Amino acid sequence: MSIDAEVLLDWFTERARDLPWRRPEATAWHILMSEIMLQQTPVVRVEPIWREWVARWPVPSAMAASSQAEVLRAWGKLGYPRRALRLHECARVLAAEHGDVVPADVDVLLSLPGIGAYTARAVACFAYGQRVPVVDTNVRRVVARAVHGREPGNPSSRDLAETEALLPTSVPRAAKFSAALMELGALVCTARNPDCGNCPLPRCAWVDAGRPAAEVVRKVQKYEGTDRQARGRLLDVLRDASGPVERVRLDMAWTRDPGQRARALDSLLVDGLVEQTEDGLFALAGEGA
Known about the structure:
Blueprint: H1 5-15, H2 28-38, H3 43-56, H4 60-64, H5 68-75, H6 82-97, H7 106-110, H8 117-126, H9 137-148, H10 158-164, H11 171-187, H12 205-208, H13 227-240, H14 247-253, H15 258-270, E1 274-276, E2 282-284
Antiparallel strand pairs: 1-2
Helix pairs in contact: 1-11, 2-3, 2-8, 9-11, 13-14, 13-15
């Protein structure tokens, strides 16, 4: 079974969310920032911070001129702050080696810091309108259900080829189709409680098969009490500080498990998000000198 491109594109034209990074004035750099921010983070949390970043760092060289600590503070509570550091590093490369312009070629994009297979293709597709498969969790779910009649399994090298085979031959239509697939998965064909009654597709292999359950049961990732939460609390202290702080300030931020706190701090140091000064104080990246 395939996906009726005409029907999906018509639905997308009528129902697509008016997201700021989809507007004509959004540059490839703006779209790149949105793609980095949206990884494992809901749109509602990303949009206000993205708007602030576009105003503050409209081009890569503007971000490159800022410190790592400034970028980490601006990242706020989006989560997975290593993404912010990698984006800062990417901005420096774009400013120094690419004339302050995000390249359109997928292979060149893949050579940039912090740019993986999904992000490279997303930028090529959504910023430059290229006919390349863009596969995130939403797209994988729609393709698995509508075409193959099953819930998605683990990510596979087949995902790109299977998605590319569905793309219309017309380049402009293919880019819009990729966005529409993603939108359908985000709004209708959701992981939990899919709204099949409002799905525009005339046929779905998964519905035809009786909506079989997933063969792979995924564990829900908790946050409360995890090392991620401990890391976040320690970073909060440093983001709110005007300079390096003593270890006791960090100790007070996470008192429930000293061993976990030490492990979290070590991981922040290893990841380059935190620095230790010569006199034993702790600071955000770039502020420990």
